[in-house]
Every structure is written in structure tokens, then in C-alpha cells.
Design goal:
The chain starts with a helix and ends with a helix. By secondary structure, it is an all-alpha fold. The protein contains 24 helices and four strands. Helix content is 71%, strand content 1%. Among the domains are: 85 residues, no CATH class; 202 residues, GLE1-like (Serine Threonine Protein Phosphatase 5, Tetratricopeptide repeat), CATH 1.25.40.510. The strands form two sheets. The protein has a two-stranded antiparallel ribbon with strand order 1-2. Strands 3-4 form a two-stranded antiparallel ribbon. Strand 1 and strand 2 form a beta hairpin. Keywords: Coiled coil, Cytoplasm, mRNA transport, Nuclear pore complex, Nucleus, Protein transport, Translocation, Transport. Belongs to the GLE1 family. This is mRNA export factor GLE1. One of its GO terms (molecular function) is translation initiation factor binding.
Length: 690
């Protein structure tokens, strides 16, 4: 149809024109734009064109048969119809396409009023807009039809794929079932084969088990025979060990006897000036060697043949040493007899000059080893010191005899508990310590003292004072042996009370020294010698060891106790009771400490013991001796370092070097800083204010 072709050409020309490319808005009235802008703007299609296409043309198509009507003819006929102009406001608002979409009544009312005054555009514009609407409708219908056909095609494909998947699933199930059946058959064959193999293996294991049972029975019989044999060997070894141990004790006893003979040759040294230092040093080393062997054997149950052989070699060396010494003494005696009378007179004069000095107690530094250094050291203590030691022991025994009948009485038990109670509480503050001191002083002075709800007095029994003095001294020394050995700082509060009691009651001080010398002979200093016929246990007790049920205490425990008592002694000689009479001298002051240090340096050192006691004594009392004796004290320290250290190191075994190294480091540090530090726990003025 020519008209329809022209319409499409017109539409295409309009679309390509400048105005056709402009954007236009159908709802410009809703935006309430200025009317003058409408006059100046490009012409636009009426808003009623859409309404005509949607209502008028569709109504016309319904009246025509579908077979005779086509989209193009319908569109053309619709466009040829006269324009529809509403006659009244009601009709206009009823057929207005904007009415149902109006959001509120006011806007619809304004639009209807404006529509009445509008003049419909020409029929050609309506046709063009109708063609546009028809074109859009045709494309929409084509799209809908294409979508429907695509959906049907997809449904057919899905159906085909579903049927194919169902068939494949059936084939897979059949294949899986066949595979399971085959695997089951294979598993059954494997199980049957394994069962046959297991039966064969079981029979084989039974045969092997029977064979192994026979072998094990043979081994058990052999093991039982071996156990019996080992038990017999162990019994023989124990018997041999006991025999060796008894032999070692016999060797040690003989060694001590030879050592005693070696000590007896000291008189030849005094008379003939024979050099006995090397013999005595080696003798002490051999005695220490056998003692170490016996100690090691006790720790490892029984001594070995090597230990016994080593002890026998040491004893043989001691015998040779004594024989050589005898030959040396014989030779010296023969030389001495060949000397003329003039030499004997000079020797007697020299002895007379040396006699008073040898027996004088060295209270001052000039008489210590710092003044005169002897190349030969002695083992025995000086005679005057030994007499002093014996006097103290005799006084202690006499005190015990006086209250012998009071030992098991009820009063003695109460008094002993009282002493133990107060002495054990001395490691307290200054005010409490003064209270304890006053009670002890009152008791010793004969005044009644309350204890445990009852009154205690030494005047109730004639031997009460002796008993209390003896037990009090014993408790003081026991505190040093136990409390000070474990807590070194406790030495000072105990020592200051002991010093104060000593000053007011001198007999208590003598008894303290007697107990201290008996439990720690090195505080004299005194090295007990083994005497013929003496039991070994008695000799060990004389050395300070505790022996219970024929068992000697361990060396570490022994050194710990000796250390505690030496520390207590070193604290006593430098402390005084602060509330006593300051004008009186100390009853046992620093001059006795100097004497002890001088005499122990003039004696041969003992392995492990001498180094331990020197360290404890210098650590506690070194600062006080330094302030008292100054230059002479530093000379003594240098003597210890240069002369005495090599002697200690020569007799000290590798397992006992701890105490020697500790002493050496302490002394070297003091010499390096030229000062000895104040001991830890030393009582200061703040202690008495507490």
C-alpha cells in the first residue's frame, strides 16, 4: 500500500531530522513548565496519540475479523478516522490516559482543565504516532513469540537430556552392580586363599613355638644356674670385701701407730735440729690417703682389691718413711756425739734463750708467724696450750662430779628444759635478747625465775648452780654445732649473750671452752694422736666425729658442725655485751683469736679440715683482727698465701679442693682490695634499737 510506505518514509525522515533527534517529554504538564517555552520549543506529538493507538485502534481491530485485518491496514484505517475531540469535561476526564495514573486528585483536575483548552494536532501526526505504537507492538509480539518458541525448544532439549541421563544412570547402575559382584567374587577367593595360608602359617607357628619353648626352658635352666652362681660369687665377694675392709682397718691402725711413732720423733727435732717437716708432711698425706680410701669404700659398700693394694703400698711407704727417718735420726745422733763439748755448750745456751719464748703465749702479733717464719711445722700443740686445754677438761669433769646425783632428778630436767628454751630463742631482736640475757643472769645469780608457771632457782639444791652452769655452757656450744652450722648469721646474737654471761660468770666461760674443745679439738687447736690400744671409734670421737652404731658420720656433716662451732668461737672473741661494764677487758678477747690463728699456722695442715676452719674463722673474725693488728695481720695473710697454701694444696686430694679454693679466693680478694668485709649478720646499733 503506497500510503503505508510513505508513512514509514516520513517517520524515517522525521527521525533523521534535527528535531527528530531531540528529546521530548510527554508529561511536561506535570512538571508545570512555562507555557511560553512550549511556543518556542519544537513541535511534539500530542499526549492523546497514545490513547488513540491503545483504545481506538484496538477497538476497531476487534470489530474486524482476524483473517481480513493486518497490522498495517488497521493502523492505516485508524489513522484515516477523524480526530476524536471530547465534548465535555466528564468525557474528557473519562477517556484521558493520564487520569488513572494521576497520583492525586489535584493534578488530575489541573490536567483535565488544561486538556479542555487544547486543540488536537492534525491527523497526520496522529497517524505517525500510531505507526510508532504499532511498530513497537509488532516487535513486542515477535519477541514474545520468539521467546515462547525458544522456551519450547529448551524444554524439548531438557526432556531429551533427562531421558538420556536416565538411560545412562541405568547403564551405570548395571555396570556398578556387575563390578560389585565381580569384586565380591574376588574377595571371596582372596579370603579362601588367606584362610588356607593362615592355617598353614598357624601350623608353622605352632611348630616354631614348640621349638622356642624347648629353647626357653633350656635358657631358664641356664639362667637359674647362672643366678645361683652369681649369688655364690656375690657372697664370696662380700666375704672378700669384709676381709678387705677389716684388712684396711688393720692397715689404718698400723698407719696411725706409725704416725704416732713419727710424731714421737719430734723430740729428736728439738734436740738435734733434724729436718722432720718432709717426713711429717708425707706421713700426714699417707694417713689422709688411707682415710680417704676407707671413706670411699664405705660409700661404695666394699673396698676393691685395687683399694687394698693402694692402702698396702701407702703403708709400705710409711714403713719405709719411718725406717729412713730412723736412719736419719741415727746418723744425726752419731754426728751429734762426734761434736765437741764447746758446741754442746753453745747449743745449751741457745736452748736456754729459746726456752722462755717457746712457752710464752702469743697475745700480740709479734709472736705470731708473721714475726718469724719456720720452715718446719709441728703437729703437736705447744705444751702451755696443752696444759690449758687439760685444765679446762679437768674443771669440766669436776663440775660433772659435783652434780652427779642430780642428773636424773625432776629439778634437773626442769632446769635443763629452761636452759634449752632460752638458748634456742637467742636469734631474735635486741630487746627480746636483753630479756633472755636478764633471765639467765638472774638464774645464775641465785634469783628465782618464772618458767612454765613455776619458780626456778639454783638455791633450791646445793648442786643446782653447778648443774645450770654446765648445762648452759653445753647448750651454747650445741647452738653453734646445730643452729650456727645451718644459719651463719645466728652466731652473733648467741655469741653476744655468751660473752656477756662469760664476763659476769667466768666459770660459765671456762665450761663453754671445755665443751667447745671436747666437741671441736681444732678450736684449741689440737690434733689428737692415736694411742696404742685405743679403739678406732674412740679415736674418731676424739677427732670430733659422731659415731653411732659403729657408723661414722659423713665428712660433709662433720665439716658443717666444726664450721658452726668455729664461727661461734670467732664471734665470741670479738663481741661484748653492750649493757655491761666497758672499762673491763674482754674475758676472752681478740688476743686469743690471734693466738689460735698463729698456732694453727705453726701446725701441719689437715686435708679439708684446716682450709674450712681457716675460711670460717677469717670470714667472721678477720675484720676485727684487721682493725686490731693492722700491718701485722696483713703480714700473716701474706704468709698464709705464700707459705701455707702450698702445704694445704699438697695434702688435698682433687675431690676435696672445694674448701681450699674457697679459702684461696677469699684471701686473694681481701689482699686485692686491702680490706676484709664486715661479716654478714654482724650486730649493729640498729639491732639493739629493734
Amino acid at each position: 500500500m503506497p500510503s503505508e510506505g510513505r508513512c514509514w518514509e516520513t517517520l524515517q525522515a522525521l527521525r533523521s531530522s534535527d528535531k527528530g533527534r531531540l528529546c521530548y517529554y510527554r508529561d511536561w504538564l506535570l512538571r508545570r513548565e512555562d507555557v511560553l517555552e512550549e511556543c518556542m520549543s519544537l513541535p511534539k506529538l500530542s499526549s492523546y496519540s497514545g490513547w488513540v493507538v491503545e483504545h481506538v485502534l484496538s477497538h476497531m481491530q476487534e470489530n474486524q475479523p482476524l483473517s481480513e485485518t493486518s497490522p498495517s491496514s488497521t493502523s492505516a484505517s485508524a489513522l484515516d478516522q477523524p480526530s476524536f475531540v471530547p465534548k465535555s469535561p466528564d468525557a474528557s476526564s473519562a477517556f484521558s490516559p493520564a487520569s488513572p495514573a494521576t497520583p492525586n486528585g489535584t493534578k488530575g483536575k489541573d490536567e483535565s482543565q488544561h486538556t479542555e483548552s487544547m486543540v488536537l494536532p492534525s491527523s497526520r501526526g496522529i497517524k505517525v504516532e500510531g505507526c510508532v505504537r504499532m511498530y513497537e507492538l509488532v516487535h513486542r509480539m515477535k519477541g514474545t513469540e520468539g521467546l515462547r518458541q525458544w522456551q519450547e525448544e529448551q524444554e524439548r532439549k531438557v526432556q531429551a537430556l533427562s531421558e538420556m541421563a536416565s538411560e545412562q544412570l541405568k547403564r551405570f547402575d548395571e555396570w556398578k552392580e556387575l563390578k560389585q559382584h565381580k569384586e565380591f567374587q574376588d574377595l571371596r577367593e582372596v579370603m579362601e586363599k588367606s584362610s588356607r595360608e593362615a592355617l598353614g602359617h598357624q601350623e608353622k607357628l605352632k611348630a616354631e613355638h614348640r621349638h622356642r619353648a624347648k629353647i626357653l626352658n633350656l635358657k631358664l635352666r641356664e639362667a637359674e644356674q647362672q643366678r645361683v652362681k652369681q649369688a655364690e660369687q656375690e657372697r664370696l665377694r662380700k666375704e672378700e670385701g669384709q676381709v678387705r675392709l677389716r684388712a684396711l682397718y688393720a692397715l689404718q691402725e698400723e698407719m696411725l701407730q706409725l704416725s704416732q711413732q713419727l710424731d714421737a720423733s719430734e723430740q729428736h727435732k728439738a734436740l738435734l735440729k733434724v729436718d722432720l717437716a718432709a717426713f711429717q708432711t708425707r706421713g700426714n698425706q699417707l694417713c689422709s690417703l688411707i682415710s680417704g680410701i676407707i671413706r670411699a669404700s664405705s660409700e661404695s659398700s666394699y673396698p676393691t682389691a685395687e683399694s687394698q693394694a693402694e692402702a698396702e703400698r701407702a703403708l709400705q711407704e710409711m714403713r719405709d718413711l719411718l725406717m729412713n727417718l730412723g736412719q736419719e735420726i741415727t746418723r744425726a745422733c752419731e754426728d751429734k756425739r762426734r761434736q765437741d763439748e764447746e758446741a754442746q755448750v753453745k747449743l745449751q745456751e741457745a736452748q736456754m734463750q729459746q726456752g722462755p719464748e717457746a712457752h710464752k703465749e702469743p697475745p700480740a702479733p709479734s709472736q705470731g708467724p708473721g714475726g718469724k717464719q719456720n720452715e718446719d711445722l709441728q703437729v703437736k700443740v705447744q705444751d702451755i696450750t696443752m696444759q690449758w686445754y687439760q685444765q679446762l677438761q679437768d674443771a669440766s669433769m669436776q663440775c660433772v662430779l659435783t652434780f652427779e646425783g642430780l642428773t636424773n632428778s625432776k629439778d634437773s630436767q626442769v632446769g635443763e628444759r629452761y636452759m634449752a628454751h632460752f638458748v634456742s630463742q637467742m636469734n631474735v631482736a635486741g630487746s627480746k635478747l636483753k630479756e633472755i640475757f636478764d633471765k639467765i643472769h638472774s638464774l645464775l645469780s641465785g634469783k628465782p625465775v618464772q618458767s612454765g608457771g613455776r619458780s626456778v632457782s639454783v638455791t633450791l639444791n646445793p648442786q643446782g648452780l653447778d648443774f645450770v652452769q654446765y648445762k648452759l655452757a653445753e647448750k651454747f656450744v650445741k647452738q653453734g654445732e646445730e643452729e650456727v652450722a645451718s644459719h651463719h648469721e645466728a652466731a652473733f646474737p648467741i655469741a653476744v649473750v655468751a660473752s656477756g654471761i662469760w664476763e659476769l660468770h667466768p666459770r660459765v666461760g671456762d665450761l663453754i671452752l671445755a665443751h667447745l674443745h671436747k666437741k671441736c679439738p681444732y678450736s684449741v687447736p689440737f690434733y689428737p694422736t692415736f694411742k696404742e690400744g685405743m679403739a678406732l671409734e674412740d679415736y674418731q670421737r676424739m677427732l670430733g666425729y659422731q659415731v653411732k652404731d659403729s657408723k661414722v658420720e659423713q665428712q660433709d656433716n662433720f665439716l658443717k658442725r666444726m664450721s658452726g662451732m668455729i664461727r661461734l668461737y670467732a664471734a665470741i672473741i670479738q663481741l661484748r655485751w653492750p649493757y655491761g661494764n666497758r672499762q673491763e677487758i674482754h674475758p676472752h678477747g681478740l688476743n686469743h683469736g690471734w693466738r689460735w690463728l698463729a698456732q694453727i699456722l705453726n701446725m701441719e695442715p689437715l686435708s679439708d679440715v684446716t682450709a674450712t676452719l681457716l675460711f670460717d674463722f677469717l670470714e667472721v673474725c678477720g675484720n676485727a683482727l684487721m682493725k686490731q693488728y693492722q700491718v701485722q695481720f696483713w703480714k700473716m695473710l701474706i704468709l698464709i698465701k705464700e707459705d701455707y697454701f702450698p702445704r694445704i694444696e699438697a695434702i688435698t686430694s682433687s675431690g676435696q679442693m672445694g674448701s681450699f679454693i674457697r679459702l684461696k679466693q677469699f684471701l686473694e680478694k681481701c689482699l686485692q682490695h686491702k680490706d676484709i668485709p664486715v661479716p654478714k649478720g654482724f650486730l649493729t646499733s640498729s639491732f639493739w634499737r629493734s
